[in-house]
Amino acid sequence: MHSNYIMILLVSVSWAPDGASHLYKNHHLDKKTSSFILILNEKVSSVSPAQPKSKVHIVYLGKRQHHDPELITNIHHEMLTTVLGSKEASVDSMIYSYRHGFSGFAAKLTEAQAQAVSELPGVVQVMSSRLHKLKTTRSWDYLGLSSSHSSTNLLYETNNGDGIIIGLLDTGIWPESEVFSDKGLGPIPSRWKGGCSSGQSFNATKHCNRKLIGARYFFKGLEAEIGEPLNTTEYLEYLSPRDALGHGTHTSSIAGGSPVVNASYYGLGFGTVRGGAPGARLAMYKVCWNLEGGFCSDADILKAFDKAIHDGVDVLSVSLGSDDIPFTEIIKPDSILIGSFHAVAQGISVVCAAGNGGPSAQTVENTAPWILTVAASSIDRSFPTPITLGNNRTVMGQAMLIGNLTGFASLVYPDDPHLQSPSSCLYMSPNDTSVAGKVALCFTSGTFETQFAASFVKEARGLGVIIAENSGNTQASCISDFPCIKVSYETGSQILYYISSTRHPHVRLSPSKTHVGKPVPTNVAYFSSRGPSFPSPAVLKPDIAGPGAQILGAVLPSDLKKNTEFAFHSGTSMATPHIAGIVALLKSLHPHWSPAAIKSAIVTTGWTTDPSGEPIFAEGDPTKLADPFDFGGGIVNPNRAADPGLVYDMGTADYIHYLCTLGYNNSAIFQFTEQSIRCPTREHSILDLNLPSITIPSLQNSTSLTRNVTNVGAVNSTYKASIISPAGITITVKPDTLIFNSTIKTVTFSVTVSSIHQVNTEYSFGSLTWVDGVHAVKSPISVRTMIEESYANDS
To answer: Can you name the CATH fold of 384-513?
Structure first.
């Protein structure tokens, strides 16, 4: 009974702007979701112990053994029939047959049936299906990808990514948006084997074009999870590729949207909206549905991967993750790990969100080494908003305030003991009268408290709220459709002093403006999930950071209940399609590069200071200089990634080291990959994985590891090592000079790392950079000294 309840809890997920996933854990704001959880729990509770509950299970069989899809499906039914007893029962139980990119099926099984299936020959693993969560005008110019026809501009060199196909696993798409116009595009690439599926309010012939060349939807897994047909009326959904949430439309416009001039959110962020690869084609695989905010079933996600591999996409953008899964479950493979492995094996780059669980450590998701995992950063744009106090002093905050309150309004501090009904902003009830018709000043310690406080003031009929947030979060991250302005703690204290020294404090909130450039800093966003990776701490995650805070993109026409086609969203969901668009451009420029080579080019060329040379900070409590666990190789630098000089390349055989660390035995790995490679026995063998980074989570004495680099620059090149050692760590590289010519294209080198510490330490950071006078191939280094403890007997 307990395990069934935990599974239901995992499905209670919602996409939230600004990465505010934790909002939905608060009972005050989560009446609908809580009710939904209780309904599902009652269904589980009502099952008699004598009637075992069937749940969705994924039966994974590894790499497909046949090229005939129908034959593969028949084999799946035969396997299921041996356990269930009849072909009819097999047909009734099976939800999907995975038969293109890999072999397996999803079926409704009891725990006993799942155990019996797991013992059949050829079965690699049987796992319960979990549910996953959903994780512009300025950002591309900020990254150096302007629309100017410069010969050094990656956008120009690749003809905007024309011919590349970007697939997205998301909530669907709003095809009428101008960003999905196919004006100026040529024929659909002949290698495309996908298609469009008609459904509710979506006509494949009418809505797909030379830009949106694919649109499919998958819902059978979700229906099996909730135990009833998807009620599109109740959940305001479309049983089709059409987007009901706006998330997929927004991410699609960021990755490969066509240019739309004079776009803005009511004048804010005015400019041209376009995708990173505006000439690329888009294929939407709708796997997430509008059940109280956005649910995505493992079974549906895996089917989408299977179809995308078959259809012929070049890049997959996956803004999904597994929030709120206990540590004991994190190391178990899921649909994204399995689906992405087979996609990468077919040469498809898979870009995934790092998650919105920051700023805490060990919150990063999608940690497999073949995935390009993306953190979220801000850009050099802000929205200053004047706050004029009753003493005619004006201070500045951050908001997206459209219009202004009429004249001055009363200003209150709800914690003021002189109020007749004192109450904290974080515990204010809808019946509280202390802020009704007034502007409230609230102090919070982070983004989630900020959104709580703003919501509570709104529910209590306040006119607006000024939030003094002590988190270092420089971005406006209040709730939408309500006057909400963020200020620093210092500014909040100044406003509080005014309130306490005035008998009748008043304030006027003025409309926000758009400011681009200095002095706006680049930060890793407060909500962005941080490393180190829990499943494999020796694999650096996240890999790279991209713009993910206050990104303007296409939304549904009814978004925010206003007549607007563009809006700002934040989250690693927005950073992911930024990187996917850049990957599309790199694939166009270097069609023969592997996904690992492209990932290496991006990681080793990232900005570790912002484009203007200023340091990059990671928002948190306290805010600090960003390190590799915040942003991997740094902020993505597309133009440098186009010519990295050297790459750390990998293939399927290299990833087997990682599979060994997850507990796969040699037999399972053979079924997974069809390669007879024995798992290495050396304890630290994962350190030799040819990653473009070095992470040693437990350094005791001295450790050596190897890497090899492939020259993708000038044929005759010489690189010298430049080392910045972490504090208390000694690093030597042999050889320290790499020479390439027409016959030597790949060189292996060793790195020896030792510690002078005599005690256990936290992580410290450095870098290894190969320099040839033109290129700087920089690998981040993270090392933690962990000396085995021994205790003498007390006597």
So the answer is: Glucose Oxidase; domain 1 (3.50.30)
